[in-house]
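Problem 12. The chain below contains 297 residues. Write out its predicted structure in token notation.
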Amino acid sequence: MLQTICMVTLMVPNVSAVATAYEQWLDYRIVNRDVVSVELARLWQAPHVAGRAQCWLQPASGEPVYVRFVEAPLVAGYAPLRTLGWNAVELLVEDPDALAARLADSPFKLIGAPRNLSFSEHVRAMQVIGPAHELLYFTRITPGKTNFKLGHAQSFVDRPFIIINGGADLEALRAFYIEHFKLNVSPTSAGRIAVLSRAYGLDDDTPQKLALASLPENFAIELDQYPAEVIERPQLTGELPPGIAMVSFTLGSLNEVALPWRQAPQAISEWPYDGHRAAVTVGAAGEWIELIEEKAA
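Solution.
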């Protein structure tokens, strides 16, 4: 079973510029920067990424959940919410309204004003497009007021806690995470996802089908049914997918997983793998899933 989300990898045109924006506006801090090793590029089966700049950032809370930026060229035809796979990162925050005010003149452009979710006045969220055209949700969960077991922010802008995965077949997505990762996946429901509806020219209040795949504690994967016009994510040969390229999860053992790997599992010596075995597989919507064993090989 998947245990935690430990890292989200985004492809960006300029690692230094994007990292600086996260430091300045979100209070994230750089914890490591180097270049992608041949060993890691081989694990991903993305040889053109070897030697590229990469950088890891961590929230001010110190939570060990990292955002990794890898330098890459822009890919024609890619836009958030219009292609299958990982489409948004949701981060815990203390005060979405104060954050919206802070970001007014920043590289983070508001596309969804702070609003309570329809099912709870104790969950308030906003949406922005970041400096690398990434889609971010910033969400406050009032401590002690919900039963979600997703935690709450320990700093003004805290860790990623939900990743949004868009698919053409929601039931196939649900079945994939139940069968292969033994996650507790909610029944399909319908809800308001204004940013998704707008991306397809629909009214903000158009009901969208979704489900939630819950990890044991503090993390979840939102599974969204995308409109029929959604396309597969365009990708350059030898590269990682554009946008949110990959999400990294911890688990007890790779032997638990009966899925094809892009490359056979191997122990990766460099930080933050630190000798733990890792491997990458591809999910039901084409999303890249990096799995890292909790104990070193």
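Discussion. The longest strand covers residues 2-12. Students who got a different answer should revisit the alignment rule from Section 12.3.
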